Amino acid sequence: MAITAEILAKKLKNELEAEHVNVEDLSDGCGGKFSAFIVSNKFKGKGLLQQHRMVNSCIKEEMESIHAFTMKTLTPEQFATQTTKTNDTAADDMKCVGGGH
User: Fold this and answer.
1) pLDDT tier for residue 23 given thresholds of 50, 70 and 90
2) pTM attached to this predicted model
3) Distance separating alpha carbons of residues 50 and 31, to the nearest angstrom
4) Spatial separation of the C-alpha atoms in residues 75 and 17, rounded to whole Å
5) pLDDT cut 90: percent of the chain above it
6) Residue 9 and residue 11: Cα distance in Å, rounded?
């Protein structure tokens, strides 16, 4: 069975009880290279290495067929802060539109 982004996303979402999961196939469909963005409450109080180990543990079987897997893991609070900062930056950029009278 070929590994797909959808299979990985479903497994990560279920096992990590993730609020947000985005998995992208970077290998042009061959299933060998993926990038994941995961937001889970289970990451609370855990260091980055522990979070990544949790992810790797969830997809241990699939990792045997994958040659590259990158990830970004966040708690819901970190995600909210990051989203707020992104929105603030976009709002600041919008203030520059129009030539600044």
Assistant:
1) very high
2) 0.80
3) 25
4) 12
5) 68
6) 6
Token digits of residue 4 = 């797909």
CB 16 within 8 A of CB 70: no
3-state class (DSSP) for residue 83: helix
- Work out the number of other CB atoms within 10 angstroms of the CB of residue 76: 15
Query: Element (H or E) spanning 9, and its range?
Result: helix 5-16
- Report the alpha-carbon distance of residue 27 to residue 49 in Å, rounded: 25
Q: What length does the chain have? A: 101
Interior angle at CA 82, CA 19 and CA 68, nearest 5: 65
Asked whether 57 and 49 are in contact (CB, 8 A), the reply is no
DSSP 74: E
* Partners of 34 in beta bridges: 25, 69
- pLDDT recorded at residue 18: 97
Q: Report the C-alpha gap between 9 and 23 in whole angstroms.
A: 6
